[in-house]
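Notes to self after the Tuesday call (sharing in case useful).
The group wants a holo model before anyone commits to mutagenesis around the pocket. I volunteered. Ligand is adenosine-5'-triphosphate. Logging inputs and output together so the record is complete.
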Amino acid sequence: MGAIGSDAVPIQAVLIVSASKPAEPPVVDFRGVTVRFGSFTAIHDVSFSIEDVPNRGEFICIIGPSGCGKSTVLNLIAGFLQPTEGQVLVAGQPVPGPGRDRGMIFQQYSSFPHLTVTQNVLFGLEINKHEIGLDRAGRSKRAKELIEQVGLGGHEHKYPHQLSGGQQQRVAIARTLATEPRILLMDEPFSALDEPTRLEMQELLVGLWHRLQPTIFCVTHSVAEAVYLAERLWIFTKAPGQIAYDIRDAIPPSIGLPPLEAQERPEFKKATMVVTEAFRSVLENSTAKSRMSRP
Ligand SMILES: Nc1ncnc2c1ncn2[C@@H]1O[C@H](COP(=O)(O)OP(=O)(O)OP(=O)(O)O)[C@@H](O)[C@H]1O
Ligand SMILES: [Mg+2]
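Result:
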């Protein structure tokens, strides 16, 4: 690992560390997962295990070359896709399909255009009202609180077309968080936004994660965004995708820090450098296998 700095940990080391048994089944567990589309292998033999620590979800960012299988990994956890080989377990159980314990937020705003902000946020609560166990007043209260938390107070009665891109993405986040998913899956959630809005949304997301503590998997193309958002960062190899680097200790905490302020700090600059170097080595086509065989 000498060439990329001591803070970037190859996946082999992580698998050894996570061999100790947690008390609860892992919140997400991939066991030798391969996905093929016809003769094309999108991801190959991916294994990881995310511990289920009570009230303490991990925030994992995934970066990697285009087409390396990042969305495929999210789709497997969401239950939109089944593995060709291996097992995907959520809370110790194979994933049969989508469920309200997992919420997905996409790059394109995914709110219902014919519903107001409040109706959008209430939607999942109404559909799952028996499982969630909230009466009408309880559902309204939760929707109102979430709308406030994502900074949309005063916009409750607007329709998505009356909102900016950033505001629409706030609706999608509030709508997804309303059913309190244990796992939040985000696929390039801010990449359609302009830079100032994107920075605002990054800060909002870190704050929400800190308060609500879901386990978050977030795919992004931006190293700076990944370093700011994540407490753990994976870099995937080119397809067939595998986790080439699992970087944890090098990532400084960003709670309470606006992104621009964070980016000026030496520890963020160092982390960005470590990640950029590791990413570059992946792009230069070294495979996970060759890195794992390094001393
Ligand atoms: N339904 C499908 N049928 C055939 N090939 C697919 C299908 N879905 C994905 N692929 C291929 O699998 C590979 C991984 O796709 P995936 O969408 O996971 O990549 P990605 O890492 O998210 O890429 P990007 O950064 O461009 O979003 C790609 O080469 C893609 O073309
Ligand atoms: Mg993708």
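Two things stood out.
Residues 70-71, 187 surround magnesium ion (ligand 2) (CB under 6 Å).
Residues 1-6, 12-18, 288-295 have pLDDT under 50 and may be disordered.
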